[in-house]
From TrEMBL:
<protein>
    <submittedName>
        <fullName>Uncharacterized protein</fullName>
    </submittedName>
</protein>
Length: 111
C-alpha cells in the first residue's frame, strides 16, 4: 500500500517521497502541511530561500573570524569589549585597535 501525500491547498497528490519542489509549511499550531509548488505563495517561497541563505552564510563566513582576518592584515587587532554588564552600552561590542600603539581606531574600547 503506497503512502499518498496530498497538497493541503488543492487535490494534487503524490505517492511515496515528497518531491523537492514541494514545501512543508507549518500553521499557527506548528502542524506541518505539505504544499505543492502550484500552491506555495511567492512570499512563502522567498522565506524558505532566505532561511537557506542564512544557513550558508553561517557555515561559510563566521563574522568574527572574518573581521579578525581583515583587521590583522592591516596591522590592527579586533577585540571584544571586556564589559561584563549586559546593561552597559558597550556590552558585547567590538573595537579595532592598532597592534603597535594599542590605540583604538574604531568601535569601543577593547581592554
Ligand atoms: Zn496544491
Amino acid at each position: 500500500m503506497p503512502h499518498i501525500t496530498t497538497c493541503s491547498r488543492c487535490p494534487r497528490a503524490v505517492q511515496d517521497e515528497i518531491p523537492d519542489d514541494w514545501e512543508v509549511i507549518e500553521d499557527e499550531d506548528g502542524q506541518p502541511h505539505e504544499v505543492c509548488p502550484d500552491c506555495v505563495t511567492p512570499a512563502e517561497r522567498q522565506a524558505f530561500d532566505e532561511d537557506a541563505m542564512d544557513m550558508v552564510v553561517e557555515m561559510t563566513n563566521p563574522k568574527e573570524e572574518w573581521l579578525t582576518f581583515i583587521a590583522e592584515r592591516q596591522g590592527l587587532q579586533l577585540g571584544k569589549s571586556p564589559q561584563p554588564d549586559p546593561a552597559a552600552v558597550d556590552y558585547g561590542t567590538y573595537g579595532i585597535s592598532h597592534v603597535q600603539t594599542n590605540g583604538l581606531v574604531a568601535g569601543d574600547r577593547t581592554g
